[in-house]
Amino acid sequence: MSLPAAHRPLAQSLDLVAQEVTDLVAIGDQLQDLISRLVVTAAASDPNAMMEAQAADLLSQRLSGLASFVRALADAAPADVGADVDSALRLLTLTEQARRLSSPGSPPAVDAGEVLTFWD
Q1: Which of 19, 28, 100 is nearest to 67 (CA)?
Q2: Where are the domains of the chain?
Q3: Alpha helices by DSSP H, 1-120
């Protein structure tokens, strides 16, 4: 059975989502390092700063779990099941994210070490 022309294999789309979330985990880990350095100086004046900074660690853990969950769904999806993901892609406000999620041949995400600012 073949998929309708507008549909893409669901497993492929889910795998792209899992990769996107995995990339976000790497960015979250990098932010944890930055937050840790900043908290060292703030902890003297705000004892709650360390506890609040642990939210970054929780964010990375939850994103990592989500990536594993979506990857397992991708692995379990039957090969002949597809989805029209174009309408979902149109909801994304970041062009690069939409590009990465639109095709498996897209180049990898921007290196987590490259900082993009509002002025870029």
Answers
A1: 19
A2: 8-102
A3: 10-42, 49-76, 86-89, 95-102
Q: pTM for this structure?
A: 0.74
The conformation of residue 97, written as its DSSP 8-state character, comes to: H
Is the Cβ–Cβ distance between 79 and 9 less than 8 Å? Answer: yes
The C-alpha atoms of residue 62 and residue 117 are separated, in whole angstroms, by 25
DSSP string, 21-40: HHHHHHHHHHHHHHHHHHHH
24 contact partners, CB below 8 Å, separation of at least 6: 63
CB 67 within 8 A of CB 18: yes
| pLDDT tens, residue by residue, 20-54 | 999 999 999 999 888 888 877 776 677 777 777 88
- Bridge partners, residue 8, by sequence: 83
C-alpha 72/C-alpha 75 separation (Å) is: 5
Counting beta carbons within 10 angstroms of the beta carbon of residue 76, is it exposed (0 to 12), middle (13 to 18) or buried (19 or more)?
Answer: exposed
DSSP reduced 3-state for 4 = coil
